[in-house]
Each structure stands twice: as C-alpha cells, then as structure tokens.
Amino acid sequence: MRELARRYAEACYGLCPETERFDAAARFLLDSAPLREALENPAVDWREKEKVLLRLPLWDRVPQLLNFFRLLVKKSRMALLPEIAEAYRSLDLEARNTAVCRMRCARVPDEARQEQLKAALCRLHRRDAVLLEITVDPDLLGGFVLNIDGVTYDRSVRGRLQDMARRLQERRLI
Questions:
Q1: Which terminus has fewer CB within 10 Å in the chain: N or C?
Q2: 11 and 79 co-located in one domain
Q3: What pTM value is reported for the model?
Q4: Are both 84 and 10 inside the same structural domain?
Q5: What distance, in Å, lies between the first and last C-alpha atoms of the chain?
Q6: Do 77 and 113 belong to one domain?
Q7: What pLDDT does residue 82 have?
Q8: Residue 3: Cβ-neighbour burial (10 angstroms; 0-12, 13-18, 19+)
Q9: Which residue positions in the chain have pLDDT lower than 70?
Q10: Are residue 22 and residue 70 in the same domain, yes or no?
C-alpha cells in the first residue's frame, strides 16, 4: 500500500469515522465500472467529475465524506480509492482492537468451531475481536492455515507432511 493512500485514509477517518457510510460510498464508486472509469479518467475535467459526485445519493448527513471525495477528484487521486478503502478499514479495525485472520482450510468449519478459534486467537493476540476471512483450499488435504498479525499457524495435513519430509531429509544428511 502506498504511503499516499494511507495518509488519505487517515485524513478521511479523522473527518468521518462512520465506517458504514464510507464503506457504502467507496463500494458504490468502485463497483460501478462506468462511474469509476469516468472519475479516474484524466481527460475528464475535475469540475465535470465533481458535478457527477454531487448528483450521487451517497452523502446524506455526511458532508465531510462528499468533500473528501471531491478532493480526490480535484487532485486526480480517485485511482487510489481501493488502497484508501483498505487502509481506512485497517484503521477502523485497529481502533476497535480487532484483527483480521485469513484462514485457508480444506473445508469450512462449523460455527461453533469458528467461535472457539476466534476466542483462542483473541487471547493469543490480545484482541477484542477477530474477523475470519475463510477460503477453501482442497490442496491442504485437511486442517487449516491461519495468518493473523503477521503470524502463520499451519495445522494442515499438507503442512505436516511437508514438515515430516523435511525432518526425514535432515536425518538422512546426518
């Protein structure tokens, strides 16, 4: 992530910590390909882009958010919006002492197991909450791999087989 995107995210978060509204506006702008293309196009004058922004139904009761997006348009920084949105989300999670845990697993665990895992990760990483982002990866054969706060926990069958093969190879060399 670029430093510039992080700084924009910090400024926006300071002005408008209403995460739901920012997410909705960013998602709306990012999900509409023609709108996004027009707002990012350097050939379109920033005043025309601003007129488009003013017509969108996103700014109810949050003029700071409209002003933020107007600034992005004026400075030709709309292409940074995906990175800004990611940094904004990180700031919000950090403010709530919440971590994102990316989980790859052979099959999705049931709700009870997910809650146990979240509770254990909260204790281990001293967090108030953990959000699981689950991806199914049949290549793991069984078990799971977790990535949270820069730490990887590999409890997959594939990982254990690789570890066993590595240890056997080390014994052969001795």
A1: C
A2: yes
A3: 0.73
A4: yes
A5: 44
A6: no
A7: 95
A8: exposed
A9: 1, 174
A10: yes
Residue 72 and residue 28 share a domain: yes
| CA distances for 109 relative to 60, 76, 104, 142, 150, angstroms | 40, 44, 11, 11, 22
Tokens 């953990």 correspond to what residue? 130
Query: Is the same domain home to 82 and 111?
Result: no
Range of the domain at 24: 3-93
Q: Is 174 exposed, middle or buried (CB count within 10 Å of its CB: 0-12, 13-18, 19+)? A: exposed
- The residue with tokens 């709309």 is 78
Do 37 and 81 contact (CB within 8 A), yes or no? Answer: no
Residue 168: predicted pLDDT: 86
Per-residue pLDDT, 62: 78
Q: For residues 140 and 164, state if they share a domain.
A: yes
What is the helix (H) or strand (E) element at residue 59, kind and residue range?
none
Residue where the block lists tokens 């969108």 = 56
Cβ neighbours, 10 Å, residue 167: 10
CA angle 19, 73, 18 (to 5 degrees): 10
